[in-house]
Design brief:
Blueprint lengths: L4 E4 L6 E9 L3 H8 E3 L10 E9 L2 E11 L10 E8 L1 H14 L2 E2 L4 H8 L5 H12 L3 H11 L2 H25 L11 H30 L1 E7 L5 H9 L17 E7 L2 E7 L9 H16 L2 E7 L13 H4 L5 E7 L18 E2 L8 H14 L11 H23 L3 H19 L5 H8 L7
Parallel strand pairs: 1-7, 8-10, 8-11, 11-12, 12-13
Antiparallel strand pairs: 1-2, 2-6, 3-4, 4-5, 5-6, 9-10
Length: about 450
């Protein structure tokens, strides 16, 4: 099977321009056999672009611009050629077919980035950041992925592993001189200090996952309340389109409806839920059950009430969020404020109700509260912030291992047991950056990439 791969790197469909990427030892000769311009690609300098035509057997397929990258100074670390052609679907598919006929094979999902990882151009955490950067939907998500791509997480892991490796090697040196029990190469007091420092840094990284995950996946916001209080109208006002059906008939919303909005660079996922009431309708009851689940899992719960003539004497009923684990922030909203004889004055108390009119799109006070809570949920104290569940699980195991080291030092256990726990910590840290990994894990990670990346 050919080791030179090709794929369309631009989104599927017709457009002004499409980019076909070719990477591998034979990429320049293969593309050169089809390209005709002023320069012979086999003699082209690295990082240069060349105008010409793609031709075969006298047939001209398209006018193109070809960019040449030579190993190791390319994305994959291999000789790479990028062909910018016109975005016709026919031209794209024919160009791929011609390249395959000339000696390429079609790339697998994520194979270009996988080659970059295998060729040492980036570690596994940075490779995963590439996928996150491509999928980013907000400024905050883009900024976080870009920091991770530049090594914010990898650099932190590298520092911890290097310091641990030194102590691990000293303890193993002691084991080589087991006959001389009085020999102690690794200073236990210094190791205790290091273990405490590493525990603190790992604890900080794992705690950053809450903010990182909120940035990456968006902050889940559940709209809950009884029937006909204006939940669907509010969803439509928030996202700026008629996303949910609005009706005076109770029970119109039978299931959860989701849409997204970016506020101040942060993605919010709004979930319109079925109205809470007693009902004999089995389908509506299923929708209400899902509403309760959405409220339990949301990071922000907006509980909506309809306005009354005496709003201050009508306190909110206990919310679903307060009845549960209290995992998220709670906002009490009184909708249809345009029906009140007068608007209550705004309050600085975060527990006070917010009065809005979703029908008139008068929701500025609610947006301000959402922005304030969102900035708190996505605030990070560490220079490195993790957003990948695989990293979180590995770092959690690393922290558990270093805590065992601390316990072992306190109990005065032998170097053999300390060495085992130190290796467990090192291995878990190595899994984050790919220094220790399996082909199965690599396949799972890169199979979620797009074909041209």
């Amino acid at each position: 099977m050919s080791n030179t791969i090709c794929a369309i790197s631009t989104p599927y469909g017709s457009g002004g321009i499409a980019v076909v990427r070719v990477s591998g030892e034979q990429s320049i000769p293969i593309v050169g056999s089809l390209f005709h311009g002023r320069t012979d690609l086999r003699e082209a300098k690295a990082n240069t672009a060349h105008y010409g035509e793609i031709t075969r057997g006298g047939e001209v397929l398209d006018e193109v611009v070809v960019t040449v990258f030579r190993a190791p100074h390319s994305f994959t670390g291999e000789d790479t050629v990028e062909i910018s052609c016109h975005g016709s679907m026919y031209i794209q598919q024919e160009l791929l077919r011609w390249l395959v006929d000339a000696g390429c094979r079609l790339a697998k999902a994520g194979e270009f980035t996988q080659r970059a990882f295998l060729n040492g151009k980036m570690d596994l955490a940075e490779a995963e950041a590439v996928a996150d950067l491509i999928a980013s939907q907000s400024k905050a998500e883009k900024d976080l992925a870009l920091k991770q791509l530049k090594g914010s997480v990898s650099d932190e892991i590298a520092v911890l592993r290097d310091r641990l490796l030194r102590f691990t090697s000293l303890i193993e040196l002691e084991l080589d001189f087991a006959d001389h029990e009085e020999l102690e190469f690794a200073d236990r007091t210094e190791l205790k200090t290091l273990a405490e420092e590493i525990h603190c840094r790992l604890n900080g990284l794992t705690h950053s996952f809450q903010a990182g995950n909120a940035i990456k996946k968006g902050i889940a916001v559940a709209l809950i309340g009884e029937t006909n209080v204006g939940k669907s109208t509010l969803l439509n006002a928030l996202v700026g389109e008629e996303r949910a059906i609005v009706s005076d008939i109770a029970g119109t919303t039978r299931d959860t409806i989701e849409d997204t909005l970016v506020l101040d660079g942060i993605l919010y996922r709004f979930i319109d839920t079925a109205g809470l009431r007693e009902t004999e309708d089995e389908i509506e009851r299923l929708g209400i059950a899902r509403s309760r689940k959405a409220a339990e899992e949301a990071q922000i719960v907006i509980e909506i009430q309809g306005a009354t003539q005496e709003p201050h004497q009508d306190p909110p009923r206990p919310s679903l969020q307060r009845e549960g684990e209290g995992r998220g922030s709670y906002i009490h909203v009184v909708n249809k404020a345009d029906l009140l004889p007068s608007m209550p004055p705004p309050s600085d108390d975060p527990e006070a109700p917010i009065y809005i009119s979703a029908k008139n799109k008068d929701i500025a006070p609610l947006l301000a509260r959402l922005k304030a809570i969102g900035s708190q949920l996505t605030a990070t104290r560490n220079a490195a912030t993790i957003s990948n569940i695989r990293h979180y699980e590995a770092l959690t195991r690393a922290d558990e291992a270093i805590q065992r080291v601390q316990e072992g030092l306190a109990a005065g256990v032998s170097g053999e047991f300390l060495s085992m726990d130190l290796h467990d910590c090192l291995n878990a840290l190595g899994e984050v950056t790919g220094q220790i990994t399996s082909n199965e894990v690599l396949h799972s990670i890169f199979s979620h990439f797009c074909i041209g990346k």
